[in-house]
């Protein structure tokens, strides 16, 4: 079941959900509204090889923000470290950002129980859009699980900001 806003508040206060920093003002009926961090990553290679570590360009937004261009793919980050050992989580855009033509998530919305860190956003825009650090851009929902939780221990454990793909760390399937 999805947690209500009051339940997210109660579980955060009980230390069972981690949202840092946490502002009760950003609680929503079934989610918590997170903000865009100031770091943006952009792949510069003409061709990305899944089995080679990508070398993204790291951009830092100032208070004036940054214009995202259509036809480019960006990685953004959440200002907040978020997650829970006791709940799974799913990430969504805010309708208000989405209806401006800003997409922050395409195909990897699931957060495992035990994954607690700033989330990486898969960002594209429909037309040039200026985004700003600190703007509320998406929401995280928390879900109770059936069965015992197992802690996440994957390639992104310990992330402190937006992280480029680490697919190249996976064992390559033999020919
Ligand atoms: O859009 C997303 C989706 C998930 N996550 C976080 C939460 C999730 O628990 C973690 C790992 O995601 P996933 O398990 O999908 O990564 P993977 O590529 O399968 O790598 P690994 O098996 O090492 O986890 O990254 C994000 O930061 N952004």
Automatic annotation (TrEMBL):
Swiss-Prot/TrEMBL keywords: Nucleotide metabolism
UniProt-listed InterPro entries: dCTP_deaminase (IPR011962), dUTPase-like_sf (IPR036157)
Keyword hit for Zinc-finger: no
Lineage: Bacteria, Bacillati, Actinomycetota, Actinomycetes, Kitasatosporales
Any matching Pfam family: DCD
Protein name: Deoxycytidine triphosphate deaminase
């Amino acid at each position: 079941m999805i947690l209500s806003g009051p339940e997210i508040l109660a579980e955060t206060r009980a230390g069972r959900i981690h949202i840092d920093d946490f502002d009760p003002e950003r609680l929503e009926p079934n989610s918590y509204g997170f903000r865009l961090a100031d770091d943006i990553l952009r792949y510069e290679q003409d061709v990305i090889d899944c089995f080679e570590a990508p070398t993204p360009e790291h951009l830092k937004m100032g208070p004036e923000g940054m214009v995202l261009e259509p036809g480019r793919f960006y990685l953004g980050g959440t200002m907040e470290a978020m997650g829970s050992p006791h709940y799974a989580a799913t990430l969504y855009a805010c309708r208000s950002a989405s209806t401006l033509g800003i997409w922050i998530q395409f195909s990897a919305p699931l957060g495992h129980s035990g994954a607690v860190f700033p989330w990486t956003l898969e960002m594209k825009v429909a037309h040039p859009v200026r985004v700003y650090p600190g703007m509320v851009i998406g929401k995280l929902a928390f879900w109770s699980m059936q069965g015992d939780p197992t802690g996440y221990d994957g390639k992104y454990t310990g992330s402190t900001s937006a992280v480029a793909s680490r697919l190249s760390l996976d064992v390559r399937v033999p020919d």
